[in-house]
Amino acid sequence: MAKIDFGGVVEEVITSEEFTIDKAREVLKDETIAILGYGVQGPAQALNLRDNGFPTIIGQMEGDAYWEKAIADGFVPGKTLFSIEEAATRGTIIKELLSDAGQVATWPIVKKCLSEGNALYFSHGFSIVYKEQTGIIPPENIDVILVAPKGSGTNVRRNFLDGSGINSSYAVFQDYTGRATERTLALGIAIGSGYLFPTTFEKEVFSDLTGERGVLMGCLAGVMEAQYNLLRKHGHSPSEAFNETVEELTQSLIRLVAENGMDWMFANCSTTAQRGALDWSPKFRDAVAPVFDDLYDRVKTGKETKRVLEVNSAPDYLVKLRKELDVIKNSEMWKAGAAVRSLRPENRK
Question: Is 208 annotated as a binding residue?
Answer without folding.
Answer: yes
